[in-house]
Every structure is written in C-alpha cells, then in structure tokens.
Design brief:
With 315 residues, this protein is mainly β. It is built from 5 helices and 22 strands.
Amino acid sequence: MKFLLFDINGRAFEAESILSYELTAEAEAPCDGLRLSFLCHSSIGEICNIKAYRKNKLVFNGFCDKQKVTFSESGKICFIYARSSAALLVDNEAVPCQYENPSARQLWFSNAKAFGFKTDLPEIYSSNSYLVSKGTSCYGAINDYVSAVSGMPVYATPENELKIYAQSKEVKRLEDYNVSSLSYVINRSEPIDEIDYKINSADNYSYHFKSDFVQKMGIQRKRMVNLSSIPLWQREMNIEKIIKKALDEYYSVSVVLLGNCDLALYDRMLINAEDTLQNEEFYIAELTFSKNKNGERTTALLKKNIDGEMVNYVA
C-alpha cells in the first residue's frame, strides 16, 4: 500500500520505509481506523491528513488523530493513528430539532453538505416526524433515520460520498483464498428471545416482540423497554433492531488470510470447514488489512444472516 501524508501547511510527501500498518473497517462503525509506523528520514512537521492507496485506488482518506515520533537505535520512527473522513460527522454535533416529512437528502443537506460530503443516499422519505435529540452527532442524525428505514447503515466513501451498505450480489468462496487460520464461534450469551415494551409511560409492558428462532434454540432472555418517547413509526423497528443486533453475534467466523486481499464489507462468502461448516453463507462484518515483519495479512470477521422469525403481539 502507498501512504501520502499532508502537514498543516499543505505540504505532501509519501511515507517510505514502512514498518507496519493496520487498516480496520467495521460495518457498525462510521469511521475506518489506520495505524501506520514508518522510518522518518527527514522532518515531517505536524500531520493533519493522510491518504492510502491500494494499486493506485484510494482506499482511505482521513485525519490524523495522534502522531508520535520515537528516537531509537533503529532511527527515527513515526507512528500515526488516523480516522477516515466520516470523523468530521462523528465529532460534530447536529442541531437538535424535529424534522417534518424528513428525507435522506434533507438530512444530508442539514448535517453533511457543509463539511464537503456529497450524497448517493437512496430517495428515502417519510410522512412522519423525526426527532434529533441534543447530543446526537451529525452522522447519527443521518444514520439513525436512514438505517431505520432502509435497514442498512450509512458510510462515507474515501471520496467523501455518503452511501448505504448493500450485501454483494456475487458470492465469494473462502477456499479461493490462502487461509492461515479459521475460528468458528457460537455465542449464546447475547440473543434475546422476547422484549416486553410499552408505548405510554403510564401503561404496563403489555406489548411483546419475540423471536421464535431464539426460543427454538432454547434460550430464555427477556428485556423490558419503554418506547413512549419514540415516534410511532420507529417503535417496531427499534425493537426488531435490538433483537437482530443481539443475533449478530450468534454465529461468526474469524479468518486470517495471507496477503492483501480484495475484499470489502458486506461481501458474501461461502465457507467449508471440515465437519463444522458445509457451504454455509456468511457476510463480512469487519476487515483489517495489515503488514508487519511477517508480511501482509487480511483478517476478516464474518457473520451469518439469521431469520429471527419475529412475532409482534399484545397480551
């Protein structure tokens, strides 16, 4: 990978003599993270921006959060930690307000356009009101609405364009990659089989949302939720999101692949692993591209789409 650094005076130079790097992306995290260590052969000044390229394709564009220079027998070593450009939307607070008949484009215009972001968000709109509470980030103001309606989170491309994730049409096969290690995990500590909720503060928890799938797995874990302050159209989606998020961790696979692989978040992948997994499909939820003295590696956390078999009813 190639790394270009920009100081506060606008000077640009390429980081050479790379000792290590680690570029991490998560489906549920708005910002990618980059850790970079390299030998400094000259003064580099105070770094504010960094861009990373794979085969001349821009894969990271962000801001330096931390810079450290260490003097040792090996020479002058510079370490940089940076977050992708979505950090602008995460670090800035949205204006608290209530939107009437909101749309994805309206939320982009109010919370992201001024920071230089373009939009490729779908034409999502609603005839209901949408409340942005005090303390919500600009990213949260956009993502909370768009993900509630579309079911997928918002992300910013390295070219500063807002989009929503989509699972790939192509299904890749793990056997086509050079696998260094694989771990298959079943986590029964998170799934929730039922949520009892109320829609008015003075009422009892007489509304229920359950997962028949979780109950079939023999898991009993209940939660009580007060939805009285949430707009009517968001209530069922919020409850379903809680159960789905807990199911995310049920079945997962962690793999370490040799080399810097051409993979992306939400890529679908078929996995065969002896007697454990037989042609089972997962999607990539986390990715880390790294390099150190042992070479380049691609580490991926894959999760399984589970039909929670949801049922909403009133006692």
